[in-house]
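Reply to dn_fold:

You asked what the input looked like. This is it:
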Amino acid sequence: SAVLAAGSALQKRLVGMSVEDPGSPIRGARPEDVRVEGGKLIANGKTDSFADLVKRAGGRPIEERGEVKPPPDRNKKWSLHSYGAQFAEVLVDPELGTVRVTRLVGAFAAGRILNARLARSQFMGGMVWGIGMALHEHSVYDEKLGRIVTRDLADYHVPVNADVPAVEPLFLELEEDREVSPAGAKGIGEIGITGTAAAIASAVFSATGRRIRKL
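and this is what came back:
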């Protein structure tokens, strides 16, 4: 939100500089009539690029700062946290006792998604490592020496391509997210991994009738 505020302030300043600059193609235009698009200022059918504007200003840096302070009562009315729900489908071999995940779906309310590709990758990565948490990874310590035995990827098993099923993260953007901050964005962080192991354990219970209490 602070970046958004700084960007908005800088955009307003650039518009003001351009409409007052004698060398600008849009000189004399009303600031409210100027459209900013693709690094250009557009008004009255004419265009002034950011690059040209900075050149005419002598190439000096043009800076603005942004600061956002939420009202003291904002967190009393609106949740500032991201949250989600995760679902798993598994196959259990009754003879070998092995479990394989065949599908993972996660629905996440993380506010306004500013970069869909990056957010999707973050969620998918967390969900994949949730498979590792539930079914693969295990830290073993030497009780006498106090050292980690599974200290490399030869012994510490993590999920590989063959272990990862279809992983589908879904985004939920809610109206109240707009009240959280000017950008409407929240943090994603680790919520992709948080519910995955529990979803897998619940799926095993649905398939076998036995609860998984320890990973």
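Strands lie at 35-37, 40-43, 46-49, 83-92, 99-109, 141-142, 147-148, 166-171.
Hope that clears it up.
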